[in-house]
Design goal:
It is found in: Cell membrane. The protein has 263 residues and is mainly α. It is built from 9 helices and 5 strands; from the N terminus they run βββααααααββααα.
């Protein structure tokens, strides 16, 4: 049985400025987004994107992730708490970012940028989708470092069961790392390999929606359920409620892309 290391939430002190691990993980995620995007542009010179457009788009992505992620946390998961503590809504360095809220923010950013660029929403989504999972993995590692979003109680015989001292003395699943592996690394490999060949418009986006939704649904069985707007349940969690429409939308988009190709 392992003990969570209880990391100092501050990664670097530079004079009066402190860089928190959570923020550092987001910076790493955005850096990987740019690096992987440049590789895709080089591998697919006919993709219609330039390095400059990718750099410009990152600004839109950052705004979508941060604003959408924080508002999602406030509205989906802890509306009562933030209603009583409105001053903490902007305290993102303390953690508390909703993926599903961030996804809505990024989808809005994709729609606006696609319109500016003169391409369809799905064309932009298909290019962006393979670049996202490594950032998701970085975010989950940030959750682990913060010791937040801990897992459900596990058997003490599980070799990697971990005690999170700030919670209790019970062995738990390190669900943050499960999610980093599933929603991050595994989804990245699937999308990266799938997107190497030309696909009908919308299919790469469909794989992202189905893949993330399914992996998140599975991982929620090992994560302590969050109390959200639908209450707290061990049967179906808030994360699973929010992931179900993603899976359905992915299936619908996949079917639509096939029908459009064969029409």
């Amino acid at each position: 049985m392992l003990i969570h290391p209880q990391f100092d939430p501050v990664a670097v002190h530079i004079g009066p400025v402190s860089l928190h691990w959570y923020g550092l993980m987001y910076l790493i995620g955005f850096a990987l987004f740019i690096a992987l995007g440049r590789i895709r542009i080089k591998q697919h010179p006919d993709c219609g994107w330039t390095n400059q457009e990718l750099d410009d788009f990152l600004t839109w992505v950052v705004a979508g992730v941060i604003l959408g992620g924080r508002l999602g946390e406030v509205l989906f998961y802890q509306p009562a708490y933030y209603w009583q503590h409105p001053g903490e809504i902007l305290a993102i360095w303390q953690g508390g970012m909703s993926f599903h809220g961030g996804l809505i923010g990024v989808l809005l950013a994709v729609a606006l940028f696609a319109r500016k660029k003169g391409i369809t929403f799905l064309q932009a989504g298909d290019f962006v989708a393979p670049l996202a999972p490594t950032g998701l993995a970085a975010g989950r590692i940030g959750n682990f470092i913060n010791g937040e979003l801990w897992g459900r109680v596990a058997s003490p015989d599980l070799p990697w069961a971990m005690v999170f001292p700030k919670v209790d003395a019970l062995p738990r699943h390190p669900s943050q790392l499960y999610q980093a592996g599933l929603e991050g690394l595994a989804l990245f490999v699937i999308l990266w390999l799938f997107a190497r060949k030309p696909r009908p418009t919308g299919q790469v986006s469909a794989v992202f929606l189905m893949g993330y939704g399914s992996f998140r649904f599975i991982a929620e069985y090992f994560r302590t359920p969050d109390a959200g707007i639908f209450g707290q349940s061990d049967i179906i969690s808030m994360g699973q409620w929010l992931s179900t429409p993603m899976i359905a939308a992915g299936i619908g988009l996949w079917v639509w892309s096939i029908q459009k190709k064969t029409a």
